[in-house]
Predict the structure of FeMo cofactor biosynthesis protein NifB.
Amino acid sequence: MQTNANTSSTPAKTYVSIGQIKSLGAKLDLPAAGGGCGTSGGEGKASCGSSDGPEDMPQHIWDKVKDHPCYSEEAHHHFARMHVAVAPACNIQCNYCNRKYDCSNESRPGVVSQKLTPEQAVKKVVAVASEIPQMTVLGIAGPGDALANPKKTFDTFRMLQEQAPDLKLCISTNGLALPDLVDEICKYNVDHVTITINMVDPAVGEKIYPWIFWNHKRLKGYEAAKVLHERQMLGLEMLTARGVLTKINSVLIPGINDEHLIEVNREVKKRGAFLHNIMPLISEPEHGTVFGLTGQRGPTASELKAVQDACMGGANLMRHCRQCRADAVGLLGEDRSEEFTMDKLEQMDVVYDLDKRRSYQEKVELERNAQQAAKQEALAAASAMPANDDLTVLVAVATKGGGKVNEHFGHVTEFQVFEVSATKALFVGHRRVDQYCQGGAGDDEQLPSVVRAINDCHAVLVAKIGACPRDELTAAGVEPVDAYVGEFIEKAALSWFNDYRARIASGAIVHQHRGDAQIRQGAYTHAADGVALAA
């Protein structure tokens, strides 16, 4: 279906091997909690797509993905998406899901603050698209399953085709009802569908899905997982046959499907999946999920990367997924949904201006070209250095968008992580953190958790950083760097990397292996205080 640059069948080099993925209950190799400035230690107070370009795929595929923030890693720096919560019902139960949880500060799939009717959803979409010209994609991703609510889903799409014809339409589904609705999906020109597939073996599936509701019956255990698996595979094959781009989401559950996801990747590629997005399990007890309440932990950063790397050579991997809410609005990594609540929409003067939206997107195209040119220039400089090594490191970046190093360390709620070597500067993931600056001053209790989140990185590129976090990061072995303010990320990362190699070559420093990092789960710490599960 598409040309894939990764054609080798040999697993890529990993930071930890699949065999090193730790079993449930095993002690994790994480750094001890730092003290933070002025504290005495302890835990403190204490969650895209292909990086291929037009040369890597047919033009008609590139035209579909180039402005889609979930299908193009490059586009996610510039284009926004929106989810509308018109699909409350679900036809399966997953052990990692609890849709009753409702917190506006929470970012997890299935979480919403307000369910909408199709009419309300269309009104909201038109208003958002008129205010955010970079919003190019509208998706229905719950809070239940889009295809378990077919009338609401397709009524929304029908009205949007009339009122916002330039938006790309997307669906996210568990796949159970998919084979029955492929024709309807194609009728509304939905050319991007995401299917959540966590297994291709029902013996694995029965550990994840306690029941499904299918053909007017509730099925349980192995039988339920077998039906779900067969329907998912059939739906994927039908979408591929109709030319619909399909992304597969998989939740990495240590001890249950970690090694199995390699087989999932292989099977979905055979059936034409365009992307495979392997996401970490979110399983904090306060979310009230089965896994959360039974102690099933999520993966560490190195475990997640090991599985993703082991799948390279199969279906294209997406690493910039933010596991968005079902009512998310804005660029990936930001959420502007609070600006567009239904009561605020009543006060807005909405004008859907297609010319304004096209004009903005033309400017974005120029910016993207400049970013690519800067990256190629920096790669040429890195390759020309005389150092004879295969050094590869991770670099964290503080950015607020536009593909540039432009965020203050203290304002970061999410770092982007790049893998850098003499031949590449590749986006490999993101790390959510609690914001260090609170009310204009640094919150020392947050600092240890921020350091743990990027502990596997050799440097962090920021627009600015205070003395306290600078000292704390340096002590932890992460180099804070504010020398590349306003530069494109890839160029900045490669420039720092070249300097790092030069310092090693001169004997000024010695390269040290970094440890593991912690994937933060759940709502932001302060915001979550006092929040209870919704009734």
Remarks:
- Confidence is low (pLDDT under 50) at residues 1-50, 523-535.
- Residues 94 and 483 are 46 Å apart (CA to CA).
- The longest strand covers residues 424-432.
- The first helix runs from residue 59 to 65.
